[in-house]
From TrEMBL:
Domain of life: Bacteria
Region span, Disordered: 210-234
Membrane-spanning parts: 33-53, 59-78
InterPro entries (UniProt xref): DUF4191 (IPR025445)
Descriptive protein name: DUF4191 domain-containing protein
Keywords: Membrane, Transmembrane, Transmembrane helix
Any Pfam family: DUF4191
Length: 234
């Protein structure tokens, strides 16, 4: 019991520190975050307290208002923090992959399944909606990347729906902060076993890292083989 209490006490400072860091990060992009949160708390608490005085139960309504005000402030803070994070990631290479990694359960993400010399990149997400190819980069250049990736996948997963999304703010593109919502709106047509089978088949295609050829010739000086990669004695 004592160990559980000490572990909880040790975790609380970590959570508070994380909240403080999130607030500082949000405030750099949203200067009014402090005023907004204070306004939300005071408004909700004030309304419930006023109702409490009107009906003769200020204490009960005050406690309820305090709890709801705290909850409302936390919700607003979470949304503003998320918006600030997306604003800072916007236009950064790999931003879409970071969003896909946090899309939720039931989705498997493989970053950088295709890339060109201009560093336009295509990521792949597989879920019950099927396969979604998410492209980052110049809209004109990524279209050829998407077409090549679809053609390659069509050989082994022709029976699975394939969607493509280009991340950006232009016409026909999907805003980074709306990417997760866009994927979750696709109709679910695959069962769990079908998703697993699709992932197994796509794993044969690999990604840029697994398909990257190993350099030939002698091993560079100072480089070591990974554990388990050397010859085994008999």
């Amino acid at each position: 019991m004592a160990r559980s209490d000490s572990a909880a006490d040790a975790a609380n400072p970590g959570r508070l520190k994380q909240i403080a860091l999130t607030y500082k990060m949000t405030r750099r992009a949203d200067k009014t975050i402090g005023l907004v949160l204070a306004g939300v708390f005071i408004l909700i608490f004030g309304v419930f307290l006023a109702i409490g005085f009107l009906i003769g139960h200020p204490i009960y309504l005050g406690i309820l208002g305090f709890l709801l005000a705290f909850l409302g402030t936390a919700i607003v803070f979470g949304r503003r923090a998320e918006r600030a994070a997306f604003g800072q990631m916007e236009g950064q290479p790999g931003a879409a992959a970071a969003v896909l990694d946090n899309i939720g359960r039931g989705w498997t993400t493989t970053p950088a399944v295709a890339m060109n010399r201009s560093q336009d990149v295509v990521h792949r997400a597989v879920g019950k909606a099927g396969i979604v190819l998410v492209a980052e980069g110049n809209p004109n250049r990524v279209k050829s990347l998407l077409a090549a990736e679809k053609k390659k996948m069509n050989r082994i997963v022709a029976d699975v729906p394939v969607y493509d999304v280009i991340v950006g703010t232009g016409e026909g593109q999907t805003d980074l902060k709306k990417l997760r919502t866009a994927l979750l709106k696709y109709p679910r047509v695959l069962s769990g076993p079908q998703v697993t089978a699709t992932n197994d088949r796509l794993r044969a295609l690999g990604d840029l890292m697994t398909n990257m050829p190993l350099p030939k010739g002698p091993m560079p000086k100072g480089m070591r083989l990974p554990k388990g990669g050397g010859p085994k004695a008999r």
